[in-house]
């Protein structure tokens, strides 16, 4: 238990006696960052279990398991956003994994918050980052504010992509914006993230909050991708 492997492998293994060829220096740097991060988080968890007397009480064991669980969830969120400890999964899987990990990390033990994800079309690779990062803020807002002191609820994410653009809808059936009026730090960050992409954000506050995000389509997306790859 002291060396429990919480996190997935940081990348493909290299057969003995064979040197892996890297596409460029950035690939090597990223792989080493993932490996170091994975090892560091596993070591932190191992240290928790070595605290004297921790395993001798039910409360101590529960605390250690909760720390272990939250370390794993934090890594899962970072993986979905940035591929922090492993190579990124397909987009739909990343979106679902991100939302589920956020609910598990931020909700209370007695809360039951359901996640629904619908995915249609093929989101351009150039927009994966901004879609996931905005989804992170919108889902986190729903959990922390929309479902504050509520036992049950549902968050639905819909990501569609076609010739008209990329649209992300995040809807919850929580309390609504209330006194926040859409001016909190999370929503300010969302607007800052989508601004370089010509994005728009609309909020509807009836029966919870529905956030509708629309990003550029067609050749504009291609030019954004070319610009980012050239940096």
CATH hierarchy, class of the largest domain: Alpha Beta
Query: Which percent bin holds the helix content?
Result: 40-55%
CATH A-level architecture of the largest domain = 2-Layer Sandwich
Average pLDDT over all residues: 81
The structural domain count equals 2
Distance between the termini: 44 Å
Q: Indicate the radius of gyration in whole angstroms.
A: 20 Å
Strand order of the largest sheet: 1-2-3-5-4
Discrete helix count = 6
Low-confidence stretches: 1-20, 219-231
The fold-level CATH name of the largest domain is Heat Shock Protein 90
CATH homologous superfamily name of the largest domain?
Histidine kinase-like ATPase, C-terminal domain
Short description:
Helices cover 46% and strands 17% of the residues.
Describe this structure in words.
With 231 residues, the protein is α+β, with helices and mostly antiparallel strands. It has two domains: 1-88, no CATH class; 91-231, Histidine kinase-like ATPase, C-terminal domain (Heat Shock Protein 90, 2-Layer Sandwich). 46% of the residues lie in helices and 17% in strands. It has a five-stranded mixed β-sheet with strand order 1-2-3-5-4, with helices on one face.
Task: Write the SSE topology.
Blueprint: H1 25-49, H2 58-82, H3 91-106, E1 112-120, H4 128-146, E2 152-162, E3 165-172, H5 185-194, E4 200-204, E5 209-215, H6 219-230
Parallel strand pairs: 1-2
Antiparallel strand pairs: 2-3, 3-5, 4-5
Helix pairs in contact: 1-2, 2-3, 3-4, 4-5
